[in-house]
Design brief:
- This protein is of the alpha/beta class and 133 residues long.
- 31% of the residues are buried.
- The chain has a five-stranded mixed beta sheet, covered by helices on one side.
- It starts with 21 loop residues before the first strand and ends in a 17-residue tail after the last strand.
- 20% of the residues lie in helices and 26% in strands.
- Strand 4, helix 2 and strand 5 form a beta-alpha-beta unit.
- Helix 1 runs parallel beside helix 2 (97-106).
């Protein structure tokens, strides 16, 4: 039996990784988890990690240490793309905000901008009706 011919336009071999010297790190810190996503300047995701992916379960996912471990893992993957400088956007009220930022700096990234992008309600949702007892 002969092998089927390869599709036209497809080249064999390994795909080379693109070189991205600077990018954006998005830290989403909630009370229950911390998600760190590192993108290129256009917003295409290069690497991500979270406390849950790193093996923390339950209430330990919301701790600063879990956020630190998640940020280190995402930074290691992003460093493979040659990334050296990041802008950090922090969102949410969680305990992992500062520790995730510190571990990104410890991973060898130069942090150029730190910006809080937590959504703030201007008037918010309508409150629940008054309780009658």
């Amino acid at each position: 039996m002969a092998k089927a011919p390869k599709a036209p336009g497809k080249k064999g071999g390994k795909k080379e990784k693109k070189n991205v010297p600077h990018g954006v790190a998005h830290v989403h810190a909630t009370f229950n988890n911390t998600i760190v996503t590192i993108t290129d300047p256009r917003g295409n995701v290069l690497s991500w990690s979270s406390s849950g992916v790193r093996g923390f379960k339950g209430s330990r996912k919301g701790t600063p240490f879990a956020a630190q471990v998640a940020a280190e893992a995402a930074a290691r993957k992003a460093a493979e793309y040659g990334m050296r400088q990041v802008q950090v956007f922090v969102k949410g009220p969680g305990a992992g905000r500062e520790s995730a930022l510190r571990s990104l700096q410890a991973a060898g990234f130069t942090v150029s901008i730190i910006k809080d992008v937590t959504p703030i309600p201007h008037n918010g949702c309508r409150p629940p009706k008054r309780r009658r007892v």
